[in-house]
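Take one protein record:
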Amino acid sequence: MLNIKILGPGCRNCQNLEAIARRVAEANGIEAEFEHVTSREDIMSYHILATPGLVVNGKVVSAARIPTDEEVAAWLKAA
């Protein structure tokens, strides 16, 4: 099971990123648990300064943008 963290304060971009990640995981039969990281200090501990961010199994794979479904699928499959 993958651990997926959405880094951000819960803004619309953060919600869109989570929706993409959930949709891609489901479409590819990937089991994942999702966690929201909203604290500025916790977000900065991942060394990103702009949200939304996507962390898969502890590795930052995207920051400061909303990736495509294809990008997210590649990251989830590689994890």
